[in-house]
Amino acid sequence: MNDESNQQNSAVDWVARARALAPAIDAAAERNERERRIAPEVIAALSEDGLLHMLLPASLNGGAADLVAYNQVIEEVAAADASTAWCLAQTLASSHAAGYLDAAIAREVFAAPNAIVAWGPPAGLAKAVAVEGGYRVTGKWRFASGSANATWMGGHSSVLQADGTPRLDAAGRPLNRTMLFRPADAAIHDTWHVLGLRGTASNDYEVTDLFVPERYSTWRDYAPDRREGGPLYNIPMLTLYGIGFSGVALGLARASLAAFTRLAQTKPWAATLGNTSPLRDQAVIQSGVARATGRLNSARAYLLRMLAEVWEASATAGRFTLDQRAELRVAITAAMEEATAVVDFCHRASGTTAIFQGSPFERRFRDMHTALAQGQAHLSNFETAGLALLGVEPTQRL
Which domains are assigned to the chain? Predict the structure, then answer.
């Protein structure tokens, strides 16, 4: 793509596009939860507005958007429906692999109008035995968010020689590859019966002795495979997941707080005890709303500052300091933690209003606590980041 096209892509207001779709996404949220998949019309709308391609490189006619736009788009979508936002974050972060695949394969997998790629971590042994022209893949994986809407799936696998010994990379380490295949080639198991994020269809899946051609394999951040330049491809794929999932948390918190602010105008404090003044007149509510607003806005501001700083460093230097990596990890995990506190306050302060299905709080509370179980929100992230802030490179990747 030429410089003019790149400038056009950089001028796209991705957040405005997401905001315009929010009413339609919100209208489908209950259906997504009930049917445990994202409604086809929502996928079509995301595709039509280019949001499914916003992180693809310009060479694939993608949006080549920056980290701030990515995070803010996910927040806007999550304020309408967290399941839709989670699946969008999952497939956008996964599209990072397009920069590591042969261009023709990347176009086939990621550039289709309705491209949704779903994959997750292994559930036990997942192996790819090297054979002529590719691999024979056997494995089971979990948490394939978007599996009900997926056009492609991937299986992260240990690569073995034909004799069963591990294949090693140039540094002598065991080689891993993500094998790409069609959903029809996998057995997808209906396992996603969970507290929240029910529309994500984050199911288990498996394949047995499936042949996958070499060209349909990749590995995240694997330098020998890298085909694309540009600042996005200096960002680790796992970090992209954190940037997206923290956007989900912030969107849930923002929507919960807005809904509670509306409720507080009219809901009596304790009508059964004779106090019919609205919630907003109570000091504890006033203080709680102020604190929740500060927590949400502070967490968002810190995250957006770090995203802008890291993007600038990636574009200019192509690398990051240890402190930058640590602070980005703090900002991602803290955003999820602070967002949870805001959602919890709104749920508790709403009283019995919050416990009924269909309230503005019940599904968001469940979705938030399901998101909190994901590794990007794990409290151990603070330990790793703290070690780095003390000047020690942690063994666990930031």
Answer: 3-117 (1.10.540.10), 119-220 (2.40.110.10), 235-389 (1.20.140.10)
AA identity, residue 99: G
Amino acid identity for residue 88 in this structure:
L
Integer CA distances (angstroms), 294 to 186, 253, 297, 302, 315, in order? 46, 12, 5, 12, 31
Is residue 237 within 8 Å of 220, Cβ to Cβ? yes
Q: What is the pLDDT of residues 102-115, one digit of tens each?
A: 999 999 999 999 99
Burial 76-106 (b: 16+ CB within 10 A, else e): bbbbbbbbbbbbbbbbbbbbbbbbbbeeebb
Closest-CA residue to 264 (of 338, 336, 345, 339): 345
Rg (the chain; Cα; Å): 22
How many Cβ atoms are within 10 Å of 295's Cβ, its own excluded?
20
CA atoms lying within 13 Å on the CB side of residue 239: 24
Nearest alpha-carbon partner for 289 in 257, 266, 256: 257
pLDDT tens per residue, range 166-194: 999 888 999 999 999 999 999 999 999 99
Strand 152-160 versus strand 176-181 pairing type:
antiparallel
Q: Rounded distance, CA 145 to CA 235, Å?
A: 21
